[in-house]
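Purpose: get a first structural picture of the assembly so the mutagenesis plan has something to point at.
Setup: two entries, given in the order below. No constraints added.
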Amino acid sequence: MTYPFASLPENLAAFCGALRRDYHFRIGPPELMDAARGLELTDLSSRRAVRDALRTILSKTHDDFVSFDIAFDRFLRGDEATRRTDRRDGLESVAEGSGESEKRSRETRPSTVGGPDEEMAAIEGIHGLVRELDENRESSSATLLRASYSPLEGEGAPLVLEPPTRAWLDAAAAVVRRVHTAASRRWHPALRGPRFDFRRTLRTSLRTAGEPVVPRWRAHPRRRARFVLLIDGSRSMGASSEPLLQLTVALSAVNTSTETFAFSTDLRRITRDVRRAAAGQTVSLELRRAWGGGTTIGRCLKEFLHQFGERLLGPDTVVFIASDGLDVGDTDTLRRAMEQLVRRSTAVIWINPLLHTPGYQPTATGMSVARPHVALLTSVVDAAGLRALAGSLRIT
Amino acid sequence: MTDPGAIRARFREHDFIIDDAFATALHLMMALDKPLLLEGPAGVGKTDTAKVLADALGARLIRLQCYEGLDAMTALYEWNYPRQMLRIRMAEGTEASLEQREAQIFSDEFLLRRPLLEAIVQDAAPVLLIDEVDRADEAFEAFLLEVLAEWQVTIPEIGTIRARHAPHVILTSNRTRELSDALRRRCLFFWIPYPTPDEEIAILHARIPQIDRRLAVQIARVVHAFRNLPLQKTPGVAETLDWARALIALHRDHLDWQALEQTLGCVLKVREDQSVLDAARDRLRPIVEDTLKPGGHSLETDFGLGSVSTPRS
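Result (structure tokens, whole complex):
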């Protein structure tokens, strides 16, 4: 078996960089160290053994596990070697001013993983790649050929978030009240509850010579509802997006567990900006391709699931998708993303501003694909509409 | 067990068939002293892996079954409150001070060790199975991170207990919810898929030595076909083994439609899935009938059991 680079640390660092960049693996220095240790225990002449060892160490999810073999084969074919050689000029500029350590990581090293120096150098190589990726992310990740050819594609427009009005706040509070999360099965100390807390009662009784004078209780706390809002900012939404932004800010003001994302042909998390608006500031944002261009709903939802799904979705999460469903992306991607969203959350509610238009039928590509998966398809054009939505909502 | 080949052989001795990739994962788990997170469909042998590993190592298996509401106290330790209460009553007439009484009732004598603490205090490294970790709450997951990282537990009344031998930890998850990144990053990961038909035949022969060769081939192929149907509850290896045992109990040496219908409940556990099977009957018929030809599976190839892929004309 031949590797693209002469030394094992270089190969490992380049491969991990490729996994991070192209396959979104979450690999940091600890994983790199484990991989180096794992390879010490592996027969390096066996491609299968190396692949099996690295796959177990570097994969953290089923998706990683599935894509690992493709990445591994691609790397050994030399695709990554070529790319990394091409990138070296770029790395030089990143390394400037960062001292000898960056340069050392690119020097030729012995072909075995020996002492800690080699491992550290490999880790520094990864750090260099990460910095480079961070710098280049803006220009590379947003390149979407199909959307670029879309008539809806544009330069993007500024997104303005205004502080919420009282009417919006009241309506948002009504929505939150309608989401009845179940009681947790955990037992927490409580003033009153169905279960006698023997332990705390005993500990308290020590103050009264072992006499349990003050009984203690335990009860089930309520789970806290979480909201995730995905707001379509494509040009086709036009003025319809304004009330949706009001809804977002109001919901964020009444429920701190609210996460907000804007998407168009790119996805951008705007939770912190929305919270600033909820706190009373007027916020203006330049979101480039995440606001005011074409629409690739499926790709953006997939990106959301990949980056944030694990942290933000769960049995207490209600997902709002605000979009007109006019999509130029791949319908299979959208369908798969919707299936995942439904599986991993309590309910998915789709707010389509066009529903308010007389004679409108939700037959757009995105809408027809997503519709079977949504718990509620509705329209919100003002605070009264949101209150009406709260009236028809009951999530348990 | 110093290399993947040895692990594979030891598992084979315990009638448990694993491939090289899985053996490598188990080898790395022990060599790197890191927990191994096993994910995969239900019934592919995630839990059994820990049991067999414990047998193969001659180590004690300690199991922590996770469920919603599981808290640190239940997983780690509890005080024996009724005994403590009795001791307090018995000590009422003595002149012991409050501190002395407290030291008495919060001693090792009144400590009930739960699985995590039990795993820490063992003299030899046990196999700790944390089963269905996805069913536990996020808060418990955070607590697990601390235990898995340090292998020490602090009991306020007693002090810090440190593990003499870090346990071999296997976590299993059925993905009913996504586990946190933090937990995943602390673990090695292995996805156990459904076995291929050939692997399943080997499993059937290993676990049920008396099974007829032809019947094993038929069962493996039909179960493989079932797994490609849109079933609510896809049959796992456990169902395959149950089905084989049921057919043997009915003295069947081969599978036919009648036997399949009689024993369908061993494989398909949801009413709607049986409807799916009915709808797909025409598609499945060639698969089942193909295996029913004289010589069964071997008729498909020149040398039997799929060793040659050229169909006979």
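The two ends of chain B are 48 Å apart (CA to CA).
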